[in-house]
Design brief:
Blueprint: H1 3-27, E1 53-55, E2 68-69, H2 74-86, E3 91-96, E4 100-106, E5 113-120, E6 126-133, H3 142-155
Antiparallel strand pairs: 1-6, 2-6, 3-4, 4-5, 5-6
Length: about 160
């Protein structure tokens, strides 16, 4: 193949790749809402094998995170938690009951969506938590950082 033809072919492939990138950014990368969200038998779903999820009931170091705690009445803690989520940029509450809150957090640039769940334990002042990316493999620690941020903000008076 002559050099000029090879360069033309490379430019054409670069244009196609650029177009695909623009379409992905414009469309966002929300992924499909998982079917396993919500509590089953008083527990949130376990994390997948990929390292882009944290869950307080996980047993391995990659996925394990401490549950959240609260003082006072459960209803007050739920209201405070909901206000924290609603006050977070690019976060929205998808569903809420007396003891469960599900939110979606969308990343700024690539528009990836993470599903975050909070389940209030009926027997104590514990909030079980799961935060998981919908797409990809790694998350550069975003889900863990998010939960720790919520923990810190929830502890403030």
């Amino acid at each position: 193949m002559p050099i000029a033809a090879a360069k033309a072919k490379a430019r054409g492939l670069a244009r196609v790749a650029g177009t695909v990138a623009v379409v992905l950014v414009a469309a966002g990368c929300p992924g499909t809402r998982p079917a396993n969200l919500g509590a089953t038998n008083g527990a949130l779903a376990p994390c997948p094998a990929s390292p882009n999820c944290v869950n307080d009931r996980a047993t391995d170091d990659t996925h394990k995170i401490a549950p959240l705690t609260y003082a006072g009445a459960r209803a007050d803690a739920m209201d405070k938690l909901a206000a924290l989520v609603e006050g977070t940029p690019r976060a929205r509450i998808v569903s809420r009951t007396d003891d469960y809150l599900n939110a979606e957090y969308t990343s700024l640039v690539w528009r990836f969506v993470d599903d975050v769940e909070f389940l209030f334990d009926a027997d104590g002042r514990t909030i079980h938590v799961r935060s998981a990316s919908r797409v990809g493999y790694g998350d550069m620690g975003v889900n863990r950082k998010r939960v720790e941020d919520v923990r810190e903000r929830l502890a403030k008076p």
